[in-house]
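wait is this the right file?? whatever heres the structure
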């Protein structure tokens, strides 16, 4: 029996029939994936299962993942999505849930997280209470750069409004030690979201909003690799940023 797949389905509260529908296969096929030791789906089906469950292929089918393992600098690239909106909500939730040391949300507004993640504030408060450092790096809603970007985007729900929604949500949980927020203008065209040794990176394109931007899922595997370079970029912006609140909870 594939215990890893069985556990992932249980954690996602997904039945054989529900997974079969998401992957476009017969329910009996899913049953064989679970019960038959060594049964490995085709690559396209494995990817569909991983997206549906928010789990890694290396966890569900380690032998198959090992055959396709990368050894060059690109081994830190887990997945590539042409649009951020194509990143499964289950993956975001899984990365947030599994993080133990650090959650850094360096999107210019971070607005979409409050829409797509149920009880997001509660999850952040719980993580911080467990000792996880939670950081938000935001654009200043009143800055000239924000106004300039609003003209480029030309959408009804303005950039400054989306930032203020995030600020209002953070205000509700700011008293929890371990949650902090700063303003910066250095990530206006690059969003970086860190979950311990996993990261989602979104470079924004001209005249487009975040959900339309290409997106990378990275995992740290080496010193001074892609992951470390993006992490250093965010840390520098954080150190140079200005506090959102008069006194941050983590000192």
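ok assuming it is, sequence goes like this
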């Amino acid at each position: 029996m594939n215990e890893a797949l069985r556990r992932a389905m249980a954690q996602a509260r997904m039945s054989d029939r529900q997974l079969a529908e998401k992957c476009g296969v017969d329910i009996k096929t899913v049953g064989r994936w679970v019960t038959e030791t060594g049964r490995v789906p085709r690559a396209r089906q494995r990817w569909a299962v991983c997206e549906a469950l928010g789990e890694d292929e290396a966890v569900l089918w380690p032998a198959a993942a090992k055959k396709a393992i990368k050894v060059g600098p690109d081994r830190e690239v887990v997945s590539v999505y042409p649009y951020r909106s194509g990143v499964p909500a289950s993956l975001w939730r899984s990365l947030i849930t599994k993080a133990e040391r650090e959650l850094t949300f360096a999107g210019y507004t971070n607005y979409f997280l409050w829409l797509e993640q149920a009880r997001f504030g509660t999850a952040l408060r719980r993580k911080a209470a467990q000792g996880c450092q939670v950081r938000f790096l935001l654009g200043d809603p009143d800055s000239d750069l924000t106004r300039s970007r609003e003209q480029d985007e030309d959408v009804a729900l303005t950039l400054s409004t989306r930032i203020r929604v995030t600020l209002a949500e953070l205000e509700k949980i700011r008293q929890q030690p371990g949650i902090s927020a700063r303003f910066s203008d250095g990530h206006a065209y690059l969003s970086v979201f860190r979950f311990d040794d996993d990261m989602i990176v979104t470079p924004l394109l001209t005249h487009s909003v975040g959900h339309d931007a290409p997106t990378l899922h990275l995992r740290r595997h080496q010193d001074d690799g892609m992951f470390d370079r993006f992490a250093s970029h965010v840390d520098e912006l954080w150190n140079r940023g200005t506090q959102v609140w008069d006194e941050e909870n983590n000192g």
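DSSP finds twelve helices and eight strands in the chain. so i think its the right one actually
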